[in-house]
Amino acid sequence: MLFAVKMDVHLPPDMDSDVKADILAREKAYSQEVQTSGEWPHIWRCVGQYSNLSIFDVDSNQRLHDILSQLPLFPYMHIDVTPLATHPSDIALLERNP
Amino acid sequence: MLFAVKMDVHLPPDMDSDVKADILAREKAYSQEVQTSGEWPHIWRCVGQYSNLSIFDVDSNQRLHDILSQLPLFPYMHIDVTPLATHPSDIALLERNP
Amino acid sequence: MLFAVKMDVHLPPDMDSDVKADILAREKAYSQEVQTSGEWPHIWRCVGQYSNLSIFDVDSNQRLHDILSQLPLFPYMHIDVTPLATHPSDIALLERNP
Amino acid sequence: MLFAVKMDVHLPPDMDSDVKADILAREKAYSQEVQTSGEWPHIWRCVGQYSNLSIFDVDSNQRLHDILSQLPLFPYMHIDVTPLATHPSDIALLERNP
Amino acid sequence: MLFAVKMDVHLPPDMDSDVKADILAREKAYSQEVQTSGEWPHIWRCVGQYSNLSIFDVDSNQRLHDILSQLPLFPYMHIDVTPLATHPSDIALLERNP
Amino acid sequence: MLFAVKMDVHLPPDMDSDVKADILAREKAYSQEVQTSGEWPHIWRCVGQYSNLSIFDVDSNQRLHDILSQLPLFPYMHIDVTPLATHPSDIALLERNP
Amino acid sequence: MLFAVKMDVHLPPDMDSDVKADILAREKAYSQEVQTSGEWPHIWRCVGQYSNLSIFDVDSNQRLHDILSQLPLFPYMHIDVTPLATHPSDIALLERNP
Amino acid sequence: MLFAVKMDVHLPPDMDSDVKADILAREKAYSQEVQTSGEWPHIWRCVGQYSNLSIFDVDSNQRLHDILSQLPLFPYMHIDVTPLATHPSDIALLERNP
Amino acid sequence: MLFAVKMDVHLPPDMDSDVKADILAREKAYSQEVQTSGEWPHIWRCVGQYSNLSIFDVDSNQRLHDILSQLPLFPYMHIDVTPLATHPSDIALLERNP
Amino acid sequence: MLFAVKMDVHLPPDMDSDVKADILAREKAYSQEVQTSGEWPHIWRCVGQYSNLSIFDVDSNQRLHDILSQLPLFPYMHIDVTPLATHPSDIALLERNP
After folding, report:
1. Which of E79, F3, F54, H10 is least crowded, fewest Cβ atoms below 10 Å from its Cβ?
2. Which secondary-structure segment (H or E) carries D17?
3. What is the ipTM of this complex?
4. What whole-number distance in Å separates Cα of residue H33 and Cα of residue H25?
5. Domain count, chain B
6. What is the residue range of A51's domain?
7. Which GO terms are recorded in the biological process aspect for this UniProt protein (chains A, B, C, D, E, F, G, H, I, J) (predicted)?
8. pLDDT in tens, C36-78
9. In this complex, which of E32, E47, E84 lies closest to F53 when CB atoms are compared?
10. Chain C residues with CB inside 8 Å of B45's CB?
11. How close B1 gets to chain J, by Cα (Å)?
C-alpha cells in the first residue's frame, strides 16, 4: 500500500552543532534501515528546500505512523501524507492483464 | 532529471458524455505512450480525488512542458511541478559508491 | 484501517430538479449499502454546511478510493482524506492490554 | 451533542525533558478520565502528525470548552472545533425508525 | 447555547429577477420568524459585503443545522459556524454572582 | 456604531507566571471597565481557543483603536476588525418602524 | 472617519457588451457623484488588476455600507474594508498641535 | 524601472475556437510589439501552467498598467506585479563601479 | 508615482524596553523626515493592528526600496507593496481635462 | 535551462552583529562567484522585502539544488523554485527562426 509523504525540516537556527550532527547521523541511519527493508522505496530532495518527497510501501496506516514518528527529526518536521492507489492509465496494469 | 507533478482534473459538470469519453480515451492513450517511452516512470491516483501524482524523468524543463501541455486534459487541469534532486540518504547512492 | 474523510458537496445551482432528486436518491442508497457492509462506520453532518465528516474502515487505500470514486455525487465533491492510527491515550488499548 | 475536534500539538523544541514527561503523563491521565466518562468517545492519531482527531459527546458548548481548556497541553495546542449533527443517510436512523 | 454564524451569499449573476425577488422575500420572512422565536438574537450586515454575522441561541447543534439548512438562500451561501461559551471577564458573570 | 472584533491571544510558553498573572488581572479589570461603560456590549469565548469574539459600540474608528491598543494583552494578540451595519431583515427595524 | 476599501471586479466573460457599457457608465457617474460629495477622497487603480484601492471619509459604518452597496458593480465585486485611525507619527498631528 | 509580472490565463472551456484563435493571435502580435519596443525584455513560460513570468522595463507604474490592461487576454488573466530594485550583490554594480 | 504600502510590525515580546523606546523614537523621526519631504503623503493606523497603511509618492522603485529598507523597524516588519496608477473615474482627471 | 527562484531571508532578530556581518559577506562573495560563472544571470531585490527574485541557468535540477543549498544564508531562507521554458511569443524565437 503506497503513500506519498512530504517532509519539511525546520531546525532551530541556534541548535548546537554536535547535537545537530548527531541527530542527522541517526536520521540517515534510520532512513537507510527502513529503505533497505523495502518499506521506503523512494526518497527525493525537493530542489531549493530542506524537504524530501518520499514514497512508502507499508501494510497499514499504523505501520506508516510508527515509521514516521520514530524519525529522529520527527519533532522538527512538518509532514503531509497522501494515500495513493493504482491509476487506471498505469501501463503496469497492461503488463499484469495483457 | 526527475520532477514530481501533481495534476488535478476539473471537468465541467455539463460536459457532453461523448466529448468526455473521447478526451479521456485520448488522455489514456497519450499517457501510456509517454509512460512507454520511459519519461513518465510513475503515475498514482490520489485517494478520494480526481488527481494523480506522477514522476517524470526528462532531459529538460522544456521537454517537461511539451509533454504536459500536450495532455488532452491540459485545459482542464491545475498542475503543480516540483523539481527533484538526489537525496543524500538515498541508499541508491550507497550502491553506486560502495 | 481507519480514515477520516471530509466531503463537501457543490451542486450547480441550475441543476434540473429531477436529475438532482435521482442523484441524491442513488447517493443515499449507495451510502447506506456501504454503511451496512461495515466499511463506513460513521457519517455526520457538519453544522451549517453541505458537507459530511465520515470514518471509513477498509482494508486498503485502493478499497477506499474505489468506494469514494463510485459515490454518485463524486463529480460534485471536494474530498479530503486523513489516514488514522491508534492514539496511545485511547482507553480501548487499556481494555485490550489490561 | 457531537463535536469533531482536531488538536495539533506544538511543544517548544527546547522543553526540559522532565517537564515534558510530566505534562504528557498528566495529559494522558486527564484524557483517559474524560474518555471513561463517556464524553470523549473517540480519539485517533493523524498519521505522520503530532495531532489527534477526536469526537466529543457533551451537553453544551460550555462543557466542551471546559474540557478542552483544562487539557494540560492546551497552551501548546492549536484546536479546531466542528459541531456535528445527524446525517440524513445515517443507517442508525433506519434502526430508530424502521 | 450560543453560536456565531457568518453567512456569505453568492447569487448567480444571471439569476432571473423574479426568482431572485421571491427567494429574497422568503429569506427575509423566514429569518424574521426565527428571530421572533428568540433563537436568532442578533443579525448584522458586514460592511461592504453581501454577508451577515449572526448570533444564534439554540438547544443543540442539530437545531442550529435545521434552522440554517432551511434558509431559502442556503444553496447560495458559504457558512462558518463558531461555537461560543461564556468569557470569564464578562461582567454579566458579576451580576449573576455578586 | 458596531464592530465585531476577534482577538486571538498568543502568550510565550516561557512567560513568568507572576508576570502572566499580573497581565491577566489587568486585562480583566480593563475589559470590565470598558464593558461597564457600554462600549463593549458583548464578549464571548470561542470554544477550544484562547480567543474571544466581541462586539464594540463606539463613536468612531479612532475610539475603537484607542480601546484595543490599550488592552494589556494587545502586544500578544492578533486582532481582526469587521465593521457592522444594520441588516435589512433585523426585526429591530420593524419595532422602530411599525 | 476614514476607511481603506479594496474593490476587485469580476465581470462574467460572456456579459453582453451593451449591458457592460451601461453598467460601467453608471458606475463611473455614481463614483464621481460620491467623490464630488467629499466622502470618497481617493481612488487609485491597482496596477495590472481590475481593482481599485479607495479611501472613504464617512460619518458611520452604515453610511459606508450604503455607498458601497449602491455601486452598480457591487454584485460583481469582492470588497475588503479596513477601518483607519490617525497614526501617531503623522506630521499632520504636529501641525495641529505645534 | 523593472517589474516582475506573473500572468495566469483562464479561458472559458467552452470558448468558440475561432474567437480563441483570434484573441491568441492578437495577444501574440501585441506582446511581440511591446517586446520589440524594449519595454518587455523577458517572457518565460512557467512549466506545466498556462502562465508566464515576465520582466517589464518601463518609465512608470502608469505605463505598466497601460501595457497590461491592453493585453487582449487581460479579461481572462490573473496578474501579480512585483516592483524590483537593484540587488546589492548584483555583479552588474561592480562593472559600473569598478 | 504612487504606491500603497502596508507595514505590519512584529516586535519580539522580550525586547528590552530601552532598546524599544530608542528604535521607536528613531522610526518616528525618520518617518516624519520622509513625510516632510513630500515622498510619504499619507500614513494611517489600521484599527486594532500594529500596522499602518501608507501612500508613497516617489520617482522610482529603487527610491521606494531605499526609503523602506532604511526604516529603523524594517527588520521587524512584513511589508506589502502595491503599485498604483490613475483610476479612469477619478474626478481629478475632470479638473485637468475640463 | 532556466529557473525562477524567489528567496526570502529571515534572520533571527537577536543574531550577533559580527556573525551577521560575516554571513552576509560570505553570501555576497558566493553569489557573485556563481553570477560570474554565468549560472545566475539575474538577481533583483523585491521592493520593501528582504527577498530577491533570481533567474538561474543551469544544466540540471541537481546543479540548482547544489548551488542553492550552499548559500551561506540557506538555513535562514524560504525558497520557491519555478522551472521555466521558452514562451511561444518570445521574439527571441523570431530571431532564431527568421
Report:
1. H10
2. helix D17-37
3. 0.95
4. 12
5. 1
6. 2-96
7. beta-ketoadipate pathway
8. 999 999 999 999 999 999 999 999 999 999 999 999 999 999 9
9. E84
10. 65
11. 7
